[in-house]
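As a representative case, the lines below give one protein's residues and fold tokens.
***
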Amino acid sequence: MTDAAEPAPRPRHRPVVADEPGDIEPASVTPGPIAVVPTAEPPLVAAVQREGGTVAPLSASTRGIVWTAASGADSLGRLLHDHPHVSWVQLPWAGVDAFADLLASARDDGRVWTSAKGAYAQPVAEHALMLALSLARVLPRRVAAHTWEADEVGRTLYGAEVVIVGAGGIAVEVLRLLEPFGVHATVVRRRAMPVAGASRTVTVAELGSVLASAEVLFVAAALTRGSRGLIGRAELERMPRGALLVNVARGGLVDSEALLDALETGRIGGAGLDVTDPEPLPDGHPLWTAPNCIVTPHVADTHAMTVPLYAERIARNTRAFLGDGRFEGRIDLAAGY
């Protein structure tokens, strides 16, 4: 997460906690020493300690683990195998696809698993709105221009038909940021449970039908085995000609080749991608120069933003681990996120 030697600065954002899945078993943990691994970073250690938690090296008495690396599922799996009495594991990112195999094997382990989902929603949603507005006003072409082109090209987000795939903290915050624009928003999620700010909520089975009227599509879902390639050639062809796509979740949710074809033929009016497949996007990849396409290198939530937000998530979950309150960001092991 960080090489900082000082406590994390005060967050300028707050977490956005969406409704938790209703079928997760109630939390049952055994409080005890917490190991912050593989690197005991000072801001994260301080977050545990200020809530009354004890930070100690891994031992037979360890009962909680705060994981600080974006990867290393195999190492974490071995660590848990060697320390079977650990009852709570905290992962550092909202997306846990890098730990998919480990989470699948942990479905019956009795542990409480938490992630950072919702913790980074505000900066990511801010980035998503920036991408959508930039595409609507054709900024990729405008910023590259060296001659005056008063061509009257551009569109507005006011009153737009918007589809958001996903219903987590990012989706909730995108909806809040879009309120002043008076959009008509449809949320696509696993279950058709209502989401505040959305005109309607539908299941993934209805994705194709709602895309037919989508002027702007925001992709903000978790990447799982079932959602990989969710936005493919057929889905892009269902969208109105010239529609815009913004992906701030995971690159694997969108078929890159199909998206490139849609951009080059004008089937899609623009794409804003903070995540790509492959990632990092190689030099010379055609998405770099595709029409009205913006690629940012997975920086919607920067280091300066994530460290204090992760520290806050750790603090709140340490409190829950010690019996005061509820865990935030519970991972549904059956769903994989």
Observations:
- Residues 121-295 form a domain with the Rossmann fold fold (CATH 3.40.50.720).
- The longest strand covers residues 184-189.
- The chain has ten helices and eleven strands.
- The first helix runs from residue 42 to 50.
